Amino acid sequence: MAKYKIVLDRPECIGCGNCESNCPDYWEMADDGLSHLKGSQPEGKNEVLENETIACNQDAAESCPVNCIHIYEDGRKTI
Fold first, then answer.
1. From CA 37, how far away is CA 66, in angstroms rounded?
2. Which of 5, 48, 55, 75 has its CA 20 to 30 A from that of 19?
3. In terms of pTM, does the model score above 0.85?
4. Which residue segments constitute the domains of the chain, with CATH numbers given?
């Protein structure tokens, strides 16, 4: 099991692009104008990526104006 779980609550995304600006290795804008978490798996309407490192995803989450990026560390929500 990966140490970190990054979750994009995609229905809440407004497509501002802050995540991509702050963390382009993990985030991009999809054709529909909303964010996409690269390498993620769908989980309902959300996108989920399990990873061993948080990398720049904390910056992406903290810059999101609608708080639709959530980070879990060892099963506990940190952001």
1. 16
2. 75
3. yes
4. 4-74 (3.30.70.20)
